[in-house]
Amino acid sequence: MSDDQAGAAVPVLTIGYGSRTVEEFIGTLERHAVQYLIDVRSRPRSRFRPECCQEPLDRALRTAGIRYVFMGDTLGGRPSDPSCYTDGRVDYAKCREKPFFQEGLARLRSA
Predict the structure, then answer these.
(1) Quick one: which H or E segment has residue 56?
(2) Cβ atoms of 52 and 46 closer than 8 Å
(3) In the predicted model, is pLDDT for residue 5 greater than 60?
(4) How many other CB atoms are found less than 10 A from the CB of residue 65?
(5) Lower CB density within 10 Å: C or N end of the chain?
(6) In the chain, where do the E strands start and end?
(7) Neighbouring residues of 80: CB distance < 8 A, sequence distance ≥ 6
(8) Which residues contact 2 (CB under 8 A, 6 or more apart)?
(9) Closest to 105 measured CA to CA, from 72, 84, 76, 75
(10) HSE (CB half, 13 Å, CA atoms) of 21?
């Protein structure tokens, strides 16, 4: 790493698998030189796209040389902490204040 790169911001890209095949999904990641896929789904599974469930996706990414990292437990949209809910709905303002969320952000930044 050169001095010019030290401390440089690394882009964080977002992607959904949607109607893509797993090959198309991984191809998109490869085109953008993605080295890590951070999965922030609270429940990393898909009833309609089983190849996008945690274990098969991890295997496919590993074959492509991309590291799969699950962080849905800290950054996912459906936290397990009941105090993050108001009237049965997630209150994201409350989530942002929780230590687990702050730790997830710190881990993401350090990656």
Answers:
(1) helix 54-63
(2) yes
(3) no
(4) 9
(5) N
(6) 36-39, 67-70, 85-86, 89-90
(7) 42, 73
(8) none
(9) 75
(10) 3
- 């930044």: which residue's tokens? 109
Half-sphere exposure of 5 (CA within 13 A, CB side): 4
17/65 Cα distance (integer angstroms): 18
Helix (H/G/I), strand (E/B), else coil: 39: strand
State pLDDT tens for residues 43-72: 999 888 899 999 999 999 999 999 999 999
Query: Which are the contacts of 81, defined by CB distance < 8 A and separation ≥ 6?
Result: 95, 98, 100
Q: How far apart are CA 81 and CA 78, in angstroms?
A: 9
The structure's pTM equals 0.83
Q: What is the distance between the alpha carbons of residues 102 and 25, in angstroms, rounded to a whole number? A: 29
Written as six digits, the tokens of 58 are 């991890």
Whose tokens are 């990641």? That residue is 29
